[in-house]
Structures are given as structure tokens and as C-alpha cells.
Design brief:
Layout: H1 14-46
Length: about 50
């Protein structure tokens, strides 16, 4: 016989939610910094000299 299926929901604990949220925040911050750096460097190298 197979084991009965449980319908009990398991939620994350508060510290697990905090860890996932912190990781998400760090990921978004690093993505923002890198994309801003790439945008500014691209603009500096491709802008006409009269724009500077």
C-alpha cells in the first residue's frame, strides 16, 4: 500500500523569509550597480565629443 497523501501546508519560518528577502535585495542591488556602470561606460565611449 502507498502512503496517504498529506494536504498539510508547510510555510517558511521568519528567518528563512528574511534570508530569501536579503538575497533578493542583494541580487537587485548588484544588478542595478552593474547595469548602471555598463550604461555610463557605454555612453562615455559612444557619445560624440560635442556631447561631453
Amino acid at each position: 500500500m502507498s502512503a496517504p497523501a498529506t494536504t498539510e501546508k508547510k510555510y517558511l519560518k521568519w528567518y528563512q523569509k528574511l534570508a530569501y528577502g536579503s538575497g533578493d535585495l542583494a541580487s537587485n542591488c548588484s544588478y542595478g550597480l552593474v547595469s548602471s556602470f555598463v550604461l555610463l561606460e557605454h555612453w562615455v565611449w559612444t557619445a560624440p565629443s560635442s556631447a561631453l
